[in-house]
Amino acid sequence: MSNCSAPEMNKWKLFLIIQMEEIKAVCADRMVLGIVLLVPAFYCILFGLLYSGAVLHDIPVVVWDQDNSSVSRSLVENLDENEKVKVIARVTDMQQVENLVQSGKAKGALVIPSGMARSLMRGEPATVLTIIDGSNLIVAFNLRKGMMTVTRTFKAGISMQLLSASGVLSDKALSILQAVSFREHVWFNPTYNYFNYIMFGTLVMALHQVILMACCLVVARDRRQGKRKAQLEEAGPGLLLLGKSIPYLGIGLAQEGIVFLMLHNIWGLPAHGSVWVLLLAGVVFSLVVIGLGLLLSTLSHDEFEASAYVMMVGLPAFLISGYSWPSYLMFFPIRGLADLLPTTWMLQIFRTIAVKGGGLTLVLSPLAVLTTMVLVTYTAIYYLWYKEARQIRQCIELG
Amino acid sequence: MFNAWLNLLAREVDFILKDRVVRRFFLIVPLLVGLLFGALYCRGQILEVPTVICDQDQSSLSREITAAFENHPRLQVVARVSSYSEVEKLIMRDQARVGVVIPPDLQDKASRGEAAQVLTIVDGSNLINSNYGISASSEVVNDLSSRLGLSLLNRAGYFPEQAARVSSSLNINEEVWYNSALSYAYFLIFAFIIFILQQTFLIGSCQTISRETANGCWQDLKSALPGWCLLPGKVLPYWTIGILQLAIILLTGRVLLALPVNGSIICLLILSMIFFAVLAALALLVSQLTIPLNSLRFTMFIALPSLALSGYTWPLSAMPAFVRAISYALPLTWYLDGFQAITMRGAGWTVISRPLLILAIMLLVCSLGNYAAWKITNRVQQTNIQLAEGVNEV
């Protein structure tokens, strides 16, 4: 670029040269090339494997059966047969229960009191205790669900058995007693599949980070290599901005396509809704992130500083986006901050379209917000670059 | 030599305080992020899961069911609608997370002893929300299942006192240990802050040597101090500040958010000291081998996926063996394992001896790696000098 003579150069040719140089710069830095080409696919594979268990089974549980009757044994059997739970030990005192749960070897316990069967036969109350280790909430909620299902079914079964045996109620009364039942539907993710839940979020964040990582270097690198002045002088801020953005838009979209296909076709991640709407959202989202990367790069001192910022934003941006912890529960300044981040809106679009199968009308407002973000970011960069170009011109005129 | 070593420490502290990036990331960001996460999860648990009720029966029985859902502390009825499609619409638009659909002929059917079904719907697209939703709706359903039958019998003119006694004789009590409110604040805040602390620690310390090499000062420092003195001296200030930051965060979390720090502080301190020493040795190793920007990228390559891989959220037992092997190689896995055992479960030496031992082995391996890197870089440098001298002579 620096060796081309500006005045007679066709603007379109210049535009193409800017893009070619940007692609060359990405290819020249082996680490950036590696990040851009391999990281999304690498994370797809790594996280795909990581969460491939998807649904938690066989959560270890310890049993202290003080009753040791046929009733208590059938409760323990029911518990062991539940797919979420696995009885790993039968112990004989509370201390052993505590030790196993504290060391993390068991995630919960079932304590059956002595004389339970006899009490039930006499119609006297008996209390079974279930213990859940709440220190890992993902495990705790799954275990709780398994335990509740088992105890509810067991309790209903025991009651009916006792009532039938005692002859207190007629057959009709017994059918009335159990007439109302509850059916539970979990929509969009019926098996509580953690893989289906987390992978879309991870995908959007990985793309966000990769695009940001590559774009945050652009201006800082040109400045370090001393190309910046010539570029601004020859192409002007508008054309330069466009030329710098397009290669990264191409990279971003290609990455989105590859990652989406990998997740959907290889890992079997269910995706609904229109691919075109997702693509449209992908273009707008990529543009916002490219804009933010270029802005960061313009304002940073050097490439190290810009990269350090990028490394830090990933996790907080994901956490405050509302994808995991619901945004209506957030402290209001944080909700405000989250609304300023593109990931918040992109994740909302992704969930509505790909997870819930919604249509374009449901995502119009997040799309409008993302579009506004593109306009604001690009206007800000244009303004900064325009100012920089003017300063360069003034320096040349003065000097 | 001791004076030279003190000078080295002072020089590093001066750099930490004066360099814009290191000052910001290493000193300020952990505290800011700590505040952010504290504010983010300060509510701890989801108490008002938005719920929509579609009561098509409008009978006394259906009102009893509706009231049970309304009275549950974790559910908040945000809408009452008359059709299933409206329930669908509200859940699709994220305006409700739980739906209850009562069919039109519930009471009639049930009174005749015919099977009638109430449908509860939970939006599973956000597992955190749905965990609380399903938990609350299961509690309501458990309670109703035993009550409704008896209430129907009463209405039908039976007087089942004995039946009531028999059906309520088995009680199920539930205890949730270590996090009785099932609070996300207890579960996540410290872990996320430690993850960020690991990142800022590595951002700060990863360029400690590569920076000197880039500035051309590394040769002078090497001639002033031997390697066993110089290398630890370069990371000692970062290590000290890292431990202090952790202490501040633990104290703030304990006092402001009442987060659990149950076990022995001494255990926690020793575990943290070894963990930060492993991180320092790792940063030193990378810093010896690359330029500053690449040191940052290498360390972040290790740090970024480490929380997901650590088994802290998604359990190790549910990961394939290959991923589990990567997880075992990361220091954060063992640190969080020990940290959680101490702070939440109040565990002592016997439980944390394994993570402690593994972190100590990691420290030893990284130190040996540093020693090897020191030797190799020295040899390469000497060869370069000899070559340069040879060229000069020619």
Give the topology, please.
The complex is a heterodimer of chains A (399) and B (394).
Chain A: H1 11-28, H2 30-50, E1 59-65, H3 70-81, E2 85-90, H4 94-102, E3 108-112, H5 116-121, E4 126-133, H6 137-166, H7 171-177, E5 180-187, H8 194-215, H9 218-224, H10 228-266, H11 275-299, H12 303-320, H13 332-339, H14 342-355, H15 364-398
Parallel strand pairs in A: 1-2, 1-3
Antiparallel strand pairs in A: 3-4
Helix pairs in contact in A: 1-10, 2-8, 2-10, 8-10, 8-11, 8-12, 8-14, 10-11, 10-15, 11-14, 11-15, 14-15
Chain B: H1 2-18, H2 20-40, E1 49-55, H3 60-71, E2 75-81, H4 84-92, E3 98-102, H5 106-111, E4 116-123, H6 127-155, H7 161-167, E5 170-177, H8 184-205, H9 210-215, H10 218-224, H11 227-256, H12 265-289, H13 292-303, H14 306-309, H15 321-328, H16 331-343, H17 349-393
Parallel strand pairs in B: 1-2, 1-3
Antiparallel strand pairs in B: 3-4
Compact overview of the structure:
By secondary structure, chain A is an alpha/beta fold. Helix content of chain A is 68%, strand content 9%.
Shape of chain A: elongated
The helical percent of chain B reads: 55-70%
Query: How is the largest sheet of chain A built, in terms of strand order?
Result: 2-1-3-4
Tell me roughly what share of residues is in helical segments of chain A: 55-70%
One letter per element, helices H and strands E, the order of chain B comes to HHEHEHEHEHHEHHHHHHHHHH
Strand content of chain A: 5-15%
- Element-by-element helix/strand order of chain A: HHEHEHEHEHHEHHHHHHHH
Low-confidence stretches of chain B: none
Number of helices of chain B: 17
**Compute the gyration radius of chain A: what is it?**
30 Å
**Residues in β-strands, percent of chain B:** 5-15%
Rg of chain B, rounded, reads 30 Å
What's the number of extended β-strand segments of chain B?
5
Give unreliable regions of chain A as ranges. Answer: 1-7
The spatial strand order of the largest sheet of chain B comes to 2-1-3-4
Distance between the termini of chain A: 23 Å
Structural class of chain A, please? alpha/beta
Q: How would you sum up the global shape of chain B? A: elongated
Oligomer: heterodimer
How far apart lie the N and C ends of chain B?
39 Å
